[in-house]
Amino acid sequence: MRRALLRLFLLAALPVVLVAAWWAASAGSTDVYWPPLRTVLGRFPEVWTGERWRADVLPSVGRLTAGYALAAVAGVALGTLVGSFRRVRAVCEPVLEFLRAVPPPVLVPVIMLFAGIGDTMKIVVIASGCVWPVLLNTVEGVRALDPVRAETARSYGVTGVRRLTRVVLPSAGPQIFTGLRQALSIGIILMVISEMFAASNGLGFTLVQFQRGFAIPEMWTGILLLGLLGFVLSVLFRLVERRVLGWYDGLRAAGRRPR
């Protein structure tokens, strides 16, 4: 109980300090671009009503979910293929390094030419940026498969799909989740960027509209909402990660115990 309370205190201490510092630093501000935090917080419930949630927040979350899921499936599938076969890796590696170096935001005009300006374009933009950390971490995780485990599976006749699902993917799981965690933050950024181009709703579109209309407190409420969205998604991701990789955390804890 004491350890749980200490952990909760440490988790909340820094956010509380930062909010208090922001409140104190902006309390007497008369700068139109730097409104007091109390003004921003006062506008928050007025701006993000039920109607705006349905019109802007839910579409953004839906696009993020679709693009992230597409990137996760494609990244794990391609990463497993590239990591499992040396010749495939030798052929694909130069192309992957070239494509990885291209920033996804600069591809938005190109993607718009092929996918239009609807939700498909935004989902593709999100997926095009999220796929790389998943793919590259999957490749490294598959390549780092323990030779003893691989040989044991071969000796027991575990091949094909069973080898993939029982040996390869569980072994690469920690690195796959590392890539998925990195991709989540990239996805939120690309969600906002994609909605700034030829959009009629979404968080990115709304932020631009507030900025163009000099609704500065409202714009700050949108930034706060994006931060809260990132925090909630991070917490949910950790819960899923602990559930899926519980065996791995157990092994690490057992390895740290004194003998």
Could you explain the architecture of this structure?
The protein has 259 residues and is mainly alpha-helical. It has one domain: Orthogonal Bundle (MetI-like fold), CATH 1.10.3720. It is 82% helix and 0% strand. It is globular. The mean pLDDT is 86.
Summary keywords:
single chain; MetI-like fold; 11 helices; globular
- Proportion of residues in helical segments: over 70%
Secondary-structure element series: HHHHHHHHHHH
Uncertain spans, ≥5 residues at pLDDT below 50? none
Distance between the termini: 26 Å
Tell me about the largest β-sheet: none
CA-based shape: globular
Helix count?
Answer: 11
Whole-number radius of gyration? Answer: 22 Å
CATH architecture: Orthogonal Bundle
Blueprint of the fold:
Blueprint (H helix, E strand, L loop, with lengths): L1 H25 L10 H11 L2 H35 L1 H15 L7 H8 L3 H25 L3 H9 L4 H35 L8 H10 L3 H29 L1 H11 L3
Short description:
The chain has 259 residues and is mainly alpha-helical. It contains 11 helices and no strands.
